[in-house]
Amino acid sequence: MTNIPANLKYTKEHEWALVEGDTVTIGITDFAQSALGDIVFLEVPEVGSEVKTGTTFGVVESIKSVSDLYAPVTGEVIASNSDVEGSPEKINSDAYGSWLIKVKIKDTADLNNLLTSAQYQEFCNTSH
Asked: What is the C-alpha radius of gyration for the chain, rounded to an integer number of angstroms?
């Protein structure tokens, strides 16, 4: 059983989003890190960069594959987690504690397109 915290929102690309006012903290889900296997490389945008909903904002590489990361919202990157970027294997041990970037959201309507934990669980159960 995959860990899917109820306080987060999710994308079908397996990113999670923690919404706090107009700031959205973004990471990859436990399901994603499990499917990827041992994560060996991570690339995320610099602070000040713009990200756009549904477009690539970074790359995560594991011993199995390379996967693009997709922005769940549009906005400006206000923080990036250099600790996790320097030690990407932390995502494998704590997917929800190892956030990637924080975005100041441009339009809160973007949040309407995200999945609840129950919807994401259902998606994970039916997407294999």
From this structure: 13
Length of the chain counted residue by residue: 128
Distance CA 25, CA 34 (A): 20
Q: Give tens-digit pLDDT for 48-89.
A: 999 999 999 999 999 999 999 999 999 999 999 999 999 999
For 90-95, the CB contacts below 8 A with 24+ separation are 91/27, 91/28, 91/33, 91/39, 91/42, 91/60, 92/33, 92/38, 92/39, 95/3, 95/16, 95/27, 95/28, 95/29, 95/30, 95/32, 95/33
Q: 75-80 and 101-105 as β-strands: parallel, antiparallel, unpaired?
A: antiparallel
> Residues 81-115: pLDDT tens digits?
999 999 999 999 999 999 999 999 999 999 999 99
